[in-house]
From TrEMBL:
Transmembrane segments: none annotated. Belongs to the RNA polymerase subunit epsilon family. Pfam families: RpoY (PF07288). InterPro entries: RpoY (IPR009907). This is DNA-directed RNA polymerase subunit epsilon. GO terms for molecular function: DNA binding; DNA-directed RNA polymerase activity. Keywords: DNA-directed RNA polymerase, Nucleotidyltransferase, Transcription, Transferase. RNAP is composed of a core of 2 alpha, a beta and a beta' subunit. The core is associated with a delta subunit, and at least one of epsilon or omega. When a sigma factor is associated with the core the holoenzyme is formed, which can initiate transcription.
């Protein structure tokens, strides 16, 4: 499954919408997606499952790139 992760680059930074970044990654669950990112110094705001028409829309965007983490 594909997940879109919204995050701040600084682990201790208060979430500010204008500074929010996103990455896409493949995982079997939201929990696994969070586990894959646990060693990174980021503040995860939200992990969203991307599927169906939403996935097709995201795939067409220029910023769409799957992040490989293993």
């Amino acid at each position: 499954m594909m997940y879109k992760v919204y995050f701040q680059e600084d682990k201790y930074e208060v979430p500010v919408r204008e500074k929010t970044k996103t990455i896409f990654l493949e995982a079997n669950s939201e929990r696994e997606a969070r586990q894959l990112l646990k060693d990174r110094p980021i503040n995860i705001e939200f992990v969203q499952l991307v599927e169906g028409p939403y996935y097709e829309y995201e795939k067409q965007q220029e910023y769409f790139k799957i992040t490989e983490i293993r």
